[in-house]
Amino acid sequence: MKELTNKEMELMEILWSNPDGLTMRELYDLLPEPRTHFNTVSTFIRRLEEEKFVKHEAIGGRLFRYLPAISRMEYEKREQDSFLNRFFKGSHMAFVRHLVKEEKISKDELQELIDLINN
């Protein structure tokens, strides 16, 4: 599965927030200003559907409701795994070690991790 672009992520966030689905017009109306052209948004949704991120169901005539085909949690998991594999050979420990070495995680945060493990 490919990584979502910023615009694709924006569209998916809207769909994840509306799991019962949205028509193209409803989805478009929820986009922040300045909005991308309606036809461009439609093209993005078609691509997301081809890539199995989005699915649709007919709700009458040529009107469709678009729904997320994968959950946000599932996408996050795939992205986490991809990131860890690319940069840390799949090792969570190597990633935590990197955070500590680069001082990106505090002692308090490390203690919180230890407490999570112990509970």
Describe this structure in words.
- A hairpin with a 2-residue loop joins strand 1 (54-60) and strand 2 (63-68).
- The chain contains six helices and two strands.
- The protein folds into two domains: 6-68, Orthogonal Bundle (Arc Repressor Mutant, subunit A), CATH 1.10.10; 89-119, no CATH class.
- The chain has a two-stranded antiparallel sheet.
- By secondary structure, the chain is mostly helical.
- It has helices at 6-17, 24-30, 38-50, 72-88, 92-101, 107-118; strands spanning 54-60, 63-68.
Q: In a few lines, what is going on in this structure?
A:
The protein has 119 residues and is mainly α. It is 60% helix and 11% strand.
